[in-house]
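Curious: why this fold?
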Amino acid sequence: MQNSTMGIAAGDATARRRHPGLAVTAVAFAFWITMAGTTAPTPLYPLYGEAFGFSPFTVTVVFAVYAIGVVAGLLLFGRLSDQIGRRPTLVTATVLSVAAAAIFLVTQNVAVLLVARMVSGLSAALVTGAATAALTELIGPNARVRPATVALFANMGGLACGTLLAGILADLVPEPLRTPWAVLGALAVLGLLGVATVQESAVHRSGFTLRLQPLHIPGEIRAVFLRTAMAAGAGFAVLGVLTAVTGLFLGTLLHQSSHTLTGLVVFIAFACTALGQLLLRVLNAAVALPAACVGLIVAAGLIAVALATTWLIPLLIGAAVNGLATGVALGQGIATITSRGAPRYRGASVSTFFAILYTMLAVPAIGVGVLIRASSLRSAGEIFSAAVAVLALAVLLSLIGTKTGRGDAP
């Protein structure tokens, strides 16, 4: 049995050496299209509201269900690709992506819409870890392009492109609540076929056990962990609210009915989040998090100005600045965990970090929905922007206090 296992592993390694480019392309595309499916509903929410007669509060709940699905997936199946292998996990994730597109395609009410969002969230939770690990193993440490860079652009590129593609299709083709999902579903099927043919890249597999992933905040870096989580979480809160209510803002206050424009705002936010993580490579570690906090405060101010003046330009600039700041804070947090955290708890620490971020993606969006119901979109947005600025300012002041009092770098 041992010789047979070694033979299979050697055969897998040989296959990867023969066609590494095809395998990397297949995994990256599956990662991209799965993440694209998670943001595709953004420009369609106003249309769903008209079709099913639900309120802006319902939109925020529908969006939040996706984040809940991601958190549940991370806590229950965060180690799945280590247990059963990269390929089976990637296949499962893309099957869920196809299923989510199919459910969206036939949805006739809010209940089915919620199911589609939950399935979409689970697909994102499964694909993120499995695809990142598979790309690392397939590309290797000595390649000209870093595996982390490929994973970054597949992940954030999918989030950015999904909303823009859906918006363009909704404006240009008939059946705007059906055609985008038919296209995305077909692309997800291609992604499924691709990862189904990729050789397994994980050498060691522990076997499946369903166990809740314990949360872990590393004691040795507790302070910087919490600061980066709060800063990145503030940025994620803005991303969540932009994803949930941009269409409502453009339609209600700016009287812009273009779904492409809605998709463009969110595209800018996520694309700049990717750029922010790349920007971290040229920033001094001591200034990265303070700079991110300043960027979050500026972005919150710009979004508040956009709401107060009903002017599009501050919204676009604010989305870009928020994305850059969020990317820097996110990258700083992951870098700190992977370089300074205890290796034996690294996986649990990363899962905890993202569980915090996705919780902050969901909860503020629901809060904004409640405020919209109680007051108005403008008032809700202004209160939310102020809360984000206060949170970022609190992190910034804690950093300044730490440096002044103890001379520590963040």
